[in-house]
Design a protein that fits this description.
It is a single chain. This protein is mostly helical. Among the domains are: about 70-135; about 260-320, Tetratricopeptide repeat domain (Serine Threonine Protein Phosphatase 5, Tetratricopeptide repeat). The chain has helices at about 1-60, 70-85, 90-100, 110-120, 125-150, 160-170, 175-185, 190-200, 210-220, 230-240, 245-255, 260-275, 280-290, 295-310, 310-320. Helix 2 packs antiparallel against helix 3, helix 6 runs antiparallel to helix 7 and helix 8 (about 190-200) packs antiparallel against helix 9. It starts with a helix and ends with a helix. It comes from Dracunculus medinensis. Keywords: Repeat, TPR repeat. Belongs to the BBS4 family.
Length: about 325
């Protein structure tokens, strides 16, 4: 009886042990499945992260750790560019018009693209207007930057010089002359400031009086004889005032510095003709054509001289 109870007890223990083993095995299996699912999920996450990182690299600048934070205008610029390269000019122009109305035309990239479309569509006047607007916009941006820099360091001479130059480019000639005078006072040896001031003074009304003021400004500049650009401008001023010999000397000095300046050679040859020095005129033109046989101004000048001398056959050959 006791033996049967003991056997029964041992049987129960064996059964419980088997049940425990089965439960443990099932639990282990479930854990293994969960682990496998987790690993797969982790791998998928890794793949997604890798894709994200690749996408970020595509839109990130070099050495950048963060994706680009594009502004509204930057995103619209991207759309404008996409429309343009796809040649969807109608959509592109519509978007440009919308942007320019919102920002009162104070945004250069849409204007620039509008100009490029105008060139493609043969709207040359529109293209010129767009180019002018972009140039003015850039000059105004430069002006603001230099004025800000000047307010921080008012004793630095190159800031008023640049501001004066930009004012000249914007057509504010009187204001440019005043600002460039300040630059000269800050740095009396700044030859560029003298040159741009002379340009500004002359372009106020381009009269003989303005030409005289510009001449005086140039002549007061230190080392002006070392600048081809300044010497050529001085020659033009002298020629306007009919000071032919002075103009010839200025061009000759410029050519000593830069012997292959074709424009200076052609202008000098014309001045020689004015003083009836035909031999020097032909020699100077010949020198220009030896440097560049296809230089149109030299060829046309030579043709005009031949025509004036009655040698129409040679003139016709030159014009061809």
């Amino acid at each position: 009886m006791d033996e049967s109870k003991q056997a029964s007890s041992e049987g129960n223990k064996s059964y419980d042990s088997d049940m425990y083993a089965n439960i443990k095995s099932t639990t282990s299996l479930e854990k293994a499945k969960k682990s496998l699912i987790t690993d797969e999920s982790s791998e998928n996450d890794d793949e997604q992260e890798e894709k994200k990182s690749k996408q970020q690299v595509m839109f990130e600048p070099p050495n950048s750790k963060k994706p680009m934070n594009l502004s509204v205008f930057d995103r619209r610029n991207f759309l404008i560019h996409q429309y343009y390269i796809r040649k969807d000019f109608n959509s592109c122009k519509a978007l440009i018009k919308e942007i320019l109305e919102e920002c009162n035309e104070l945004y250069d990239y849409p204007i620039y693209i509008r100009g490029k479309i105008a060139i493609v569509e043969k709207e040359l006047i529109m293209a010129l207007e767009c180019n002018r607007e972009v140039t003015n916009f850039i000059n105004k941006e430069r002006l603001y930057s230099f004025e800000k820099a000047r307010s921080l360091r008012p004793q630095k001479s190159n800031y008023p010089r640049e501001i004066g130059h930009i004012q000249f480019l914007l057509g504010n000639h009187k204001k440019a002359a005043e600002i460039l005078l300040e630059a000269i006072k800050l740095n009396p040896s700044d030859t560029k400031a003298y040159y741009w001031r002379a340009m500004a003074l002359y372009h106020i009304d381009q009269s003989d009086e303005s030409a005289t003021q510009a001449q005086e400004c140039i002549m007061s500049a230190p080392n002006f004889v070392k600048s081809v650009e300044i010497l050529k401008f001085l020659a033009e001023l002298c020629a306007q005032k009919n000071e032919i010999n002075s103009a010839i000397e200025a061009y000759k000095k410029a050519l000593e510095l830069e012997s292959e300046d074709l424009d200076a050679l052609v202008s000098l040859s014309l001045l020689y003709l004015k003083v009836q020095n035909d031999d020097q005129a032909f020699a100077t033109l010949g020198k220009a054509l030896s440097y560049d046989p296809s230089h149109s101004p030299s060829i046309l000048t030579a043709g005009a001289i031949m025509q004036g001398m009655g040698d129409y056959d040679v003139a016709l050959i030159k014009y061809r």
